[in-house]
Amino acid sequence: MVEVRRSTIIDAPVDEVWAILRDFNGHESWHPAVATSAIEHSAPVDMIGAVRRFRLSDGSELREQLLSLSDKDWSFSYCILEAPIPLMGYVATVRLKPVTDGDATFWEWRSTFHPPENRKRELTALVADQIYSAGFEAIRKLIAARSGRMRPAAPAAPPAAAPQPVPVADRAASPGTERTQAIIVDRYGGPEVLRWGEVAVQPPEPGEIRIRHRAIGVNFIDIYCRTGYFDLLQPPGVPGMEAAGVVDAVGPGVTAFAVGDRVAYACPPVGAYCRLRTMSAELVVPLPPDIDEETAAAGLLKGVSASFLLHDVERVGAGDVVLIHAAAGGIGQLLVQWARHLGATVIATVSNDDKAATVEALGAHHVIVYSRTDFAAAVLDITGGAGADVVYDAVGRDTIAGSIRALAAPGHLVSFGQASGPVGEMDVGRLASKSITLSRPNYGHYTDTGAKIARHAERIFAALRSGAVRVAPPRRIPLADAAEAHRLLESRATSGSLILV
Amino acid sequence: MTKVYVSSVIPAPAASVWAVIRDFNALPAWTPFVAESRIEQHMLPDQIGCIRNFALKDGGRIRERLLALSDYDLSCTYSMLESPMGVENYIATLSLTPITDGNRTFAAWQAEFDCAPEREGQLARDIANGVFQAAFTALQKRFQR
């Protein structure tokens, strides 16, 4: 038996490092050796016994099983079930400890296994260097990039003048202050940090209204806020950026709304995972009578995104060829329907046949299952070599190179997310090969005034009303079980929207 | 039960740091706050159950019993028998872990104890800063590269 042990110090607080490492499927987005990864049977990423099946960049496939995971001790262990190399009986443990002297993190990664005698040195070096040390380096870079350029470039970073989040602690308690049930994040971490509790709700000040929520949207950005990937939420705080409900009280000077009006919103600041909330009336839109609260909570944020992506970032129109990645996802489904309605030829990529069927039903003209087909070659094939006029890419690292290959000249690459990992650095000179325009839109910049939000809301409501786009009935989960909603979203077990009620 | 946890990075290989701290009678040699120390009953300083009896530079006297010592895990656990601090059930563990990256050492010192509730915060801060961190800072200086 050999023992491999590597350890390092990461210059970030332990909770921040743990939030990245505890995701058993997350290595896909940060480890340089891992090309793609999925949890079998859509199990939650932190379920003991979950199996991750992943492919290395050299094409070989491995399966590993989670044996233990402790958020209290910041550690997990796992074993190899199948591998193309003889790492027999491989059991590994990842363990973090806080370094109180300097607020850093000690990270130890160690394993034991039984290699064949003649390959002992080779396999020991492979595990130590290409897996463990390379992993340390990748996390170090990721965290450095995050504190530097990643955060401002995040798709939904708040505008500079974003109002402050709902504080969990009471402001100076004024008359009329109420308390409400809420989900509270005391520290960054997994779904288990979502605590059911109570927070104070201030009476509306000038320009504010108080809303009694009837349905609350659950979005991937809420997970990024919970883990600390985006700093939109400073613990302790209430997550959530989307909800619909009824106006309960109106502050001085507010003329646009009256008590009893049905309203919705989809924007920072965070604070939607609660029953009752006070916020700026500027950020809230009235709900038309024919749009119910649950549809609004399920579709407003995604609809606003689709609105500015298709109308402002690019003006998609008749005859355009549009390539949409992750087309079965929340925003993807809206983009497919809406782009088709605008007259575009829609080419969609998805990861499996079930999702392909979903996206075909939504009206995509061509669907590519990218896990078994080179999507860039397929797009060139479909377009007779011309390529797509615009590519909507929220997948990031895994697709960006193919997206450029799939573009027409001149073409427009719209990068608005990074589900597979950060896009990283890009050689601007390469864009000249196809006279490519590159856009990196930020949700905050398209929703930071009442006028902008109102324009997008009108567009999405009109599209819903005319049937140009449909939002599938969302799955309803009790607000107290928000952690369950996050687990479902993270495991990619659901394709439709989730709402909290 | 109050818990104190302090950890630091010492710029030297774990074996070198361990050679300094494994001697249960060596506090005067590596911490800034111990004046003199002896092992009671002529026991050896790495014998489980031995008691170190030491005087602080500010005059207080402390007796501590060695409960566990592992040259494999590079860790040492002890309990406090007598002290002027007013704590009970005090058990502490000092452990080292190699940091292969840079051949350095991760040092962690944790303690658990009972005391009067109103003294808990101040006492925990005093132990964390005045004892554990002060000792780690001395180790860092000693091994400064």
UniProtKB/TrEMBL annotation, chain A:
<keyword id="KW-0521">NADP</keyword>
<feature type="region of interest" description="Disordered">
    <location>
        <begin position="153"/>
        <end position="173"/>
    </location>
</feature>
<dbReference type="GO" id="GO:0070402">
    <property type="term" value="F:NADPH binding"/>
</dbReference>
<dbReference type="GO" id="GO:0005829">
    <property type="term" value="C:cytosol"/>
</dbReference>
<dbReference type="GO" id="GO:0008270">
    <property type="term" value="F:zinc ion binding"/>
</dbReference>
<dbReference type="Pfam" id="PF08240">
    <property type="entry name" value="ADH_N"/>
</dbReference>
<dbReference type="InterPro" id="IPR019587">
    <property type="entry name" value="Polyketide_cyclase/dehydratase"/>
</dbReference>
<dbReference type="InterPro" id="IPR020843">
    <property type="entry name" value="ER"/>
</dbReference>
<dbReference type="InterPro" id="IPR036291">
    <property type="entry name" value="NAD(P)-bd_dom_sf"/>
</dbReference>
<dbReference type="InterPro" id="IPR002364">
    <property type="entry name" value="Quin_OxRdtase/zeta-crystal_CS"/>
</dbReference>
<feature type="compositionally biased region" description="Pro residues">
    <location>
        <begin position="155"/>
        <end position="166"/>
    </location>
</feature>
<keyword id="KW-0560">Oxidoreductase</keyword>
<feature type="domain" description="Enoyl reductase (ER)">
    <location>
        <begin position="189"/>
        <end position="500"/>
    </location>
</feature>
<dbReference type="InterPro" id="IPR023393">
    <property type="entry name" value="START-like_dom_sf"/>
</dbReference>
<dbReference type="InterPro" id="IPR011032">
    <property type="entry name" value="GroES-like_sf"/>
</dbReference>
<dbReference type="Pfam" id="PF10604">
    <property type="entry name" value="Polyketide_cyc2"/>
</dbReference>
<dbReference type="GO" id="GO:0035925">
    <property type="term" value="F:mRNA 3'-UTR AU-rich region binding"/>
</dbReference>
<dbReference type="InterPro" id="IPR047618">
    <property type="entry name" value="QOR-like"/>
</dbReference>
<protein>
    <submittedName>
        <fullName>NADPH:quinone reductase-like Zn-dependent oxidoreductase</fullName>
    </submittedName>
</protein>
<dbReference type="InterPro" id="IPR013154">
    <property type="entry name" value="ADH-like_N"/>
</dbReference>
<dbReference type="InterPro" id="IPR013149">
    <property type="entry name" value="ADH-like_C"/>
</dbReference>
<dbReference type="Pfam" id="PF00107">
    <property type="entry name" value="ADH_zinc_N"/>
</dbReference>
Automatic annotation (TrEMBL), chain B:
<protein>
    <recommendedName>
        <fullName>MxaD family protein</fullName>
    </recommendedName>
</protein>
<dbReference type="Pfam" id="PF10604">
    <property type="entry name" value="Polyketide_cyc2"/>
</dbReference>
<dbReference type="InterPro" id="IPR019587">
    <property type="entry name" value="Polyketide_cyclase/dehydratase"/>
</dbReference>
<dbReference type="InterPro" id="IPR023393">
    <property type="entry name" value="START-like_dom_sf"/>
</dbReference>
